[in-house]
Design brief:
This protein is mainly alpha-helical. 48% of the residues lie in helices and 3% in strands. The protein has one domain. The protein is globular, with a radius of gyration of 15 Å.
Length: 155
């Protein structure tokens, strides 16, 4: 797909090795804040920046925190199952051994779409699964020397 900065920005094309969908094909089914979590995870690392996508990663966390601070009725559009189905059908889970960073981004996006499905898993609420995923990706990138070490979430 050719880069068109208005209609088809390259950094919103699929980071996953599948059909050429754009981020909006999925996020249109989500609330504003959750859609932005996905948008910034989707494009993280695909814009030519010196920070290796760290600013986009931090924006995803900012919108995640904002989403979590809203009253529950504002968490859902009712179309999340559609987004989950489109995502899981078109974007297969990347191999963690081949590309851990892409795998973790995929995992976080999957968790974001599935808030209503992931509310409780092993006794952990959905937001803790997301926080754990953010922390794992961050720790990996810090270990690789790509991102600065810092605390992402207050205890």
């Amino acid at each position: 797909m050719e880069n068109d900065p208005v209609n088809h920005p390259k950094h919103y094309s699929s980071p996953f090795e599948t059909v050429p969908n754009e981020c909006i094909d999925i996020t249109q089914y989500l609330t504003f804040c959750l859609g932005n979590v996905v948008k910034y995870l989707w494009r993280e690392g695909s814009k030519a920046t010196e920070d290796n996508g760290y600013q986009d990663f931090k924006k995803a966390i900012w919108y995640f925190k904002r989403h979590c601070s809203l009253p529950m009725p504002f968490h859902f559009t009712g179309h999340e199952p559609t987004a989950q189905a489109v995502f899981s059908t078109k974007f297969k889970e990347p191999d963690a051994e081949k590309n851990y960073e892409l795998f973790m981004r995929w995992r976080l996006i999957d968790f974001a779409f599935g808030e209503s499905f992931w509310k409780e898993k092993n006794g952990e609420p959905w937001q803790y699964l997301m926080m754990e995923g953010f922390n794992k990706l961050h720790a990996h990138m810090v270990e690789k020397g790509k991102w600065p070490e810092e605390t992402l979430f207050d205890e």
